[in-house]
Amino acid sequence: MLKKTLQWRKDFKIQSILEEDLGSDLATAAYMSGIDNQGHPICYNIFWVLDDEELYNKTFGTEEKRN
């Protein structure tokens, strides 16, 4: 399973996401605030920002591109 995961990461150039400029459009899509009772950070995801079709397509691509 590990070999398959590593091969998938290599095939799809997953490391390249680190160099991508995601812009500030998604800054409102999630934020960190506080910790839970076990000391883990709490992340809030605001999914309604993706109701904007242009932002959604910019983030996830069109169905045609995904295929």
Automatic annotation (TrEMBL):
On the tree of life, the source organism's domain of life is: Eukaryota
Which Gene Ontology molecular function entries are recorded, alphabetically? lipid binding
Entry protein name: Patellin-6
Species of provenance: Capsicum baccatum
Phylogenetic placement of the source organism = Eukaryota, Viridiplantae, Streptophyta, Embryophyta, Tracheophyta
